[in-house]
Write a structure and sequence with these properties.
By secondary structure, this protein is an alpha/beta fold. It contains 11 helices and 18 strands. It comes from Amycolatopsis alkalitolerans.
């Protein structure tokens, strides 16, 4: 089968690879239609890790060496080992959990002590076929096209951040950073009836955020210290920039909550004293809890087509390198139909 295989830094090869293993009990083999690329894929490609186990086996997946990338994938079930029927369209959450540890028993499967991800910790969905556990998959409704359904995994990350925030109904929230997960957070929060305000340094991203449902959009500089508006009960920091967390805490009302979603490239300092005096909660959100967040993501995508605002380009598998080195959201069309 054709697959995109990562061998090392800057060394991604589209080649003929061995097909996936036959599905066991409770597993599915998916004929992949679409697979999205995200910033993590670009980072792993540029640096040859560290999440991809290219040099030593991953402790939980057991995989080591060249790895088929891709953790945002959807397609049709072609061999069913449980839970679905052949021909069903599904999206995969991509993360596997043990179901036995304390985090799993608490429903926080994204924090499983033996968690690993298809497309990062073992072979993933940037290929014609992939075998995965059925429990990480959700059926795609008939009215939801492939090009929209492929966004389910990153939308689930936005859903998880919303749940972590516990923003009061119909309250005002601020999203710092309107690219990637930030844009999806805007759409998900607006869909829940929250009044969403957005700040970003890119005018085009801000315009897209308005179309996705943002009530206001503010253009800020890269080292901005303040915003024109503040006093928000809930602030999402999605940029991962060095100034983002500082700006987020300053924009939060006393007793409010900052949800850190973006991953800074290095340790970030912020004014802990100010946060303590104002009793501002600073919490984090990582990945998604598949059984809870992925169905909500599919439900949103079944009701609203987000492709025009989120997806920058759709490329065939042989042109994947163009997507890994370009700005914006890239989706790879594994079937080669060329449809958006």
């Amino acid at each position: 089968m054709k697959a995109a295989v990562l061998y090392g830094a800057g060394d991604l090869r589209v080649e003929d690879a061995a097909g996936p293993r036959e599905p066991g009990d409770g597993e599915l083999t998916i004929a992949v239609h679409r697979c999205g690329l995200c910033g993590t894929d670009a980072h792993e490609y540029a640096h040859g890790g560290p999440m991809t186990p290219l040099r030593a086996p991953h402790p939980w997946s057991g995989h080591g060496g060249p790895t088929i990338i891709g953790h945002e994938f959807m397609g049709t079930v072609c061999r069913a080992g449980g839970g679905f029927s052949e021909g069903d369209r599904v999206v995969a959450g991509a993360g596997q959990w043990c179901g036995e540890c304390s985090a799993c028993r608490a429903g926080r499967t994204n924090l499983c002590r033996r968690y690993f991800t298809y497309g990062l910790s073992t072979h993933g969905g940037m290929a014609e076929y992939v075998t995965v556990p059925a429990e990480m998959c959700v059926a795609v409704p008939g009215g939801c096209p492939d090009g929209n359904a492929v966004l389910a995994q990153p939308v689930a990350i936005a859903m998880h951040a919303l749940d972590r925030a516990q923003a009061p109904d119909r309250s005002e929230v601020l999203v710092l950073g309107a690219g990637g997960i930030g844009a999806l957070l805007v759409a998900a929060a607006a869909d829940r009836g929250l009044a969403v305000h957005v700040a970003d340094l890119d005018p085009e991203r801000l315009a897209a955020a308005r179309r996705l449902g943002a009530a206001t959009a503010e253009l800020v500089g890269r080292d901005a210290d303040t915003l024109s508006g503040n006093g928000f009960r809930t602030v999402f920091e999605t940029s991962g920039s060095t100034s983002g967390l500082r700006l987020a805490t300053r924009a939060t009302a006393p007793g409010g909550r900052v949800v850190a979603v973006g991953l800074p490239g290095r340790p970030v300092e912020f004014d802990v004293r100010a946060a303590v005096v104002s009793e501002v909660d600073v919490i984090t959100s990582s990945a998604h809890a598949c059984r809870r967040d992925l169905p909500m993501a599919v439900d949103l995508l079944a009701r609203r087509d987000l492709r025009e605002e989120i997806v920058t380009r759709v490329l065939p598998l042989e042109n994947i390198h163009n997507g890994l080195t370009a700005a914006g959201k890239t989706v790879i069309d594994i079937l080669g139909k060329g449809e958006r």
